[in-house]
Write a structure and sequence with these properties.
Blueprint (H helix, E strand, L loop, with lengths): L1 H16 L3 H4 L3 E9 L9 E3 L1 H14 L4 E10 L2 E11 L6 E13 L2 E9 L2 H10 L2
Parallel strand pairs: 1-6
Antiparallel strand pairs: 1-2, 3-4, 4-5, 5-6
Amino acid sequence: MSQENVELVRHATEDFLRRDLDALVNAYDPEVHWSDLQHAPDAPPDVHGIEAVRRVWEDWLDSFPDLRADIAEYIDCGDTVVCAIHWHGSGRESGVHIDQHTFDCFEVRGGVIRRVTLGYSRREDALEAATAER
């Protein structure tokens, strides 16, 4: 099952990079819990429900129209997939450039993403959190 979880997260990432939010929401539980440890600009640190998460995605893509998330690695941790991600892009209005490496955790249950925790700075911390969630 865990390889299926990796593929689900990989496809969700591809949908995000294509800006296909309609397809992307299908990978998520309607009651998804979304946490951003780094508190992205203008985004709440915790969001519940797919519609609220979708608004966060829309805000990110509006604020950073060239936002990219290059995935260096998908790490299979059973029910959780850890992604080593390089985020980069420039702010539409501010011109501020972001260039950040993070480790993000995607917990999968019942074939959908149920919990996301973004923004671990260290691989070890993300792996510890992923294995603790079991």
